[in-house]
Design brief:
- It is a single chain.
- By secondary structure, the protein is of the alpha+beta class.
- The strands form three sheets. The protein has a seven-stranded mixed β-sheet. It has a five-stranded mixed β-sheet with strand order 1-2-7-5-6.
- The protein has eight helices and 14 strands.
Length: 344
Amino acid sequence: MNIDCPTPRHEEEVVLLGHGAGGRLTEELLESVVLPAVGEAEGPLEDAALLPGRPDLVMSTDSFVVSPLFFPGGDIGSLAVHGTVNDLAMRGAQPLALSVSLIIEEGLPLSELRSVMASLGKAAQDAGVPVITGDTKVVGRGAADRLFINTTGVGRRYAPLCPSAANARPGDVILLSGPIGLHGTTVLSTREGLGFEGDIASDSRPLHRLVHALAPLGAAVHVLRDPTRGGLAASLNEIARDSSVAVEIEESAVPVPEAVASACDLLGLDPLVVANEGCMVAFVAPEAAEDALTAMRSLPEGAQAVRIGEVLHEGPRGRATLRTLVGARRIVEMPLGEQLPRIC
């Protein structure tokens, strides 16, 4: 009797939450689906791009689907402004104008929409960037989760600055403007009722004034990046890859608030992969490091700035490592997928 083996059943490929996490799955989605359709980008993929033929102008777009809509330290409205302003700033640009598009689920209380829009308007006013255009759509119940916001920003680059993820060089000093992990753990704790939100708040805030303070250092500022999705780990890996350098940070130098460390211990998370919305990583030439620290610490958003590492002269290119508290080295892996969904 002949028994034929059944043909293996292959499930259809589908989009996963992890494809939007800013890690390796996101890279795969961009490389296999998005970029082949719209055209390969020149140079590294940045959070904002220089306009063709106008290298003085920078443009960025982002969508915000955070759940819940309100959390200690912010809400989806202020987060939408801060996120786009910061993406422009990381390319060395002063924000000039924003667009705001709303996708609203039928049934959202108007009181909540008013609160979100009041917060968004105040954040834009405080940042000194006008909202000049937008769009509003309403979808049926269940077709979206309450409220999604898309923002697009245009900025003008500070003339002396042209930071890029591809510009890190051996010997560069790595600076961090403040503590990590606050935004991701706050949003997750609020959503799941873990109780940590009483001790911490999101660090959501604009960073363009911090970049303006670094502008006099000009070409000595090689890379700027705000470690949002995928946290500090993703940012360091992207910079190491795009610049083809070996990056190393000191565990003892990275500021992790006690409440963040406790939450991460409970949940089995590495603080290095937890999202931030109000801190910045800067790679600067060694001779400018002290001046850069002084400039960052002169502003409230950079008051806790510290040196956390350097770009090695020798080492595995394209890789980030961490010098542990006991002096050993471990690889800082690029996050694979979504550990904290819906945090921005």
